[in-house]
């Protein structure tokens, strides 16, 4: 087990800048999730930590050791690939024991460690099978088993669950988390699924266009997103964004929407009268109230049983509101909404940076 | 299939299909059958029954004489040496080159691929006059080594494309997984990639063997000493000298067909995929 | 202080040069794997090719050679054998290609269907491809021989020939011999490539066409042919070049005879390089052949572009 430290890590393909100056300190035993939209550089970063990709600049340390020039095989890491990358010509036991065999471990030791990992993952009955004789879920387990047998310093996962069906994915998510809790090995996990990120991570690293946007515990990211990108990316259904202008008089402050609707905001925020901002509201926060300051029209009502998802047109924008239980509303009806000042997020219109 | 045709029509279509297939099969087999037939026809019956479908008596005398009284066993051996060596070297060289084209991105790769493609298409007769002279100057005429060098160069481009397509079929992840598991690149090759490309290498070996086994013109040009002749050259000079010993010639031909047919049986599976991958080869 | 900073500088330069060395090695690695193939091709194909072009400006005799400029090319203008060989090459190529292609296409279409024994049939009909060319040539030469071959007798029984004589011995018909052998030998190549292309046509396309009311012929011309067109274009082009330069069969069956009636440019180059002392003339003819083939390829590619733009 070891910490992983990235300092000013960059990646360029010719003139193309894929990763710019990533700084990240991952503590020993931590479960870190890298998340971001497709093409943002998550896999590239992970593969640089694995040593599969050269580092254009900066340094990567595993524990105290600088590994920039260390071959993948000497980094003492294990990786689970999205495609699982099981060796087609070896049976499950040989796949799992391959790394130990390469290290010239005694046959006895290999058998014991493989049996141990197989027991943990429920693979005992499959040890003599070839990968092509396994289901997708079983292959995924074998790939996990191969990583566990190593007892490495760091686990690397590159979207390991994305080839499974939804139900199995939820199940494996819990299983990986449980595994991590018992093994306590540092893990770096790449996904583009923010629910996976929220449920599994000790800390989440949100990336966009090769730049780290924010690093933090899942609920911190949810409650205090550093910018509009993180706010929009984390959370499902996604946060509503509305363009607005600040109104300020004395120790009162509010935002005015395009249609003139007004919402009070925390007066302590560093904003001035006339500032252009983007107002962010998570769907669970708008409340339907006859006296609400925002007037709109119901567009779609989606009853989900436990809750109801309602879309309203407000100041020319679609706004999603999530309410527990049933809501008596029909498309076309007028509706009034309101929200508490403490639940509003404000971002600078130009930069997207969080104001409060 | 698509339904909606009447039964009688379908019967007719099936009959037509089988008739056409039958014609193709007959056309493909007839010349080979005829060679075989003449090879088992006794010398005495040849002129009387040369053109009947099957002679009234069959014999293996012609084979016995070819094996005992002629140089054909020696030619056969020479051809085996040349073809096997060529096939082995080409497969090795082409595996390395194919691996490089499949696994690396580097400047000049497109140019290399184009060069290889070019050698596939330009007429080999172009190099006949210079090779004849150059080989003479470096003393490689009349030697099997000279032939092996030439055949290797002629086949390497095609085999490289073939091997590249087999390597392309193996996900890069496997190699990377092996390198993380503790392999160097070379070890990953030996323990993971090579075992998975063995069928591909077998196919390449077979294609090149067949090509080398069939080559005539360069062998004819470069070899004239009796004990270095390949089978093709031996058979052709035999015809020049003993033009009327049909039985023996055909017996020798049937023997020359055997290795080619054996390899063919093995290659069958790879024909359709292999040839499309390698694109263009006689 | 100084020692510390110099140490740091040293460490920095060490890691810097180490990185550069690693980068250099990484850049060389693909070339290392390619080098045996490239060296072979360069020394055995490209260098001789250049030498060949050089030879075409020289005249060779027993022990010496001299530079004659375009003399060899001029000599070609007055060479009646070459003129005939050019015409023969045209016939040989066009005739072989026509039958190889259409019979190969027919075979591919048959093999694309399912019928009892398809695998065995496929193995048998592809067999001629595996037969060494010299054996194909000899076998067919024997079949045309009236003493041991049945073909002359069948031809005369059918009334196509007055006497059961060898067509290879008659200048008027001799070219048919190598062409037939070439067709026999070349059908599998077209069948294999076209079959692979046919197999890649999604069956939904046929089903959709059938639902749209296309009859089998329309399905063939509207779905199959357009799908095969790129494969056909490239294989026909490459095959033309290949056949035009393919000398083995003719050399084995007729050596270009009788009376030069089967002499193609390729056999002519071979025979003159081999038998006459003047490699210069053979090389000049080879350069001519190369030029003609490049011209052919360029014209064909241009035509395809024009065609594609119209479509
Ligand atoms: N070899 C390469 N040459 C040039 N660009 C590359 C190369 N490999 C990756 N890229 C680019 O780098 C960027 C990051 O790729 P990366 O694979 O890390 O994305 P990702 O975040 O893992 O996306 P996904 O979720 O789709 O897997 C992409 O824009 C990609 O196009
Ligand atoms: Mg990725």
TrEMBL record, chain A:
The keyword tRNA processing does not apply. Transmembrane segments: none annotated. CDD domains: ABC_MalK_N (cd03301). It holds the Pfam family ABC_tran. GO terms for molecular function: ATP binding. Residues 4-234 form the ABC transporter domain. InterPro entries: AAA+_ATPase (IPR003593), ABC_transporter-like_ATP-bd (IPR003439), ABC_transporter-like_CS (IPR017871), ABC_transpr_MalK-like (IPR015855), ABC_transpr_MalK/UgpC-like (IPR047641), Mo/tungstate-bd_C_term_dom (IPR008995), NA-bd_OB-fold (IPR012340), OB_MalK-like (IPR040582). The keyword Transport applies. Keywords: ATP-binding, Nucleotide-binding, Transport. It comes from the Bacteria. NCBIfam families: PRK11650.1. Belongs to the ABC transporter superfamily. This is Sn-glycerol-3-phosphate ABC transporter ATP-binding protein UgpC.
UniProtKB/TrEMBL annotation, chain B:
This is Carbohydrate ABC transporter permease. Pfam families: BPD_transp_1. The chain crosses the membrane at residues 12-34, 75-99, 111-132, 144-163, 200-223, 243-267. Its main location: membrane. It is a multi-pass membrane protein. It comes from the Bacteria. Keywords: Cell membrane, Membrane, Transmembrane, Transmembrane helix, Transport. InterPro entries: BP-dep_ABC_trans_perm, MetI-like, MetI-like_sf. It is found in: Cell membrane. Belongs to the binding-protein-dependent transport system permease family. Residues 76-267 form the ABC transmembrane type-1 domain.
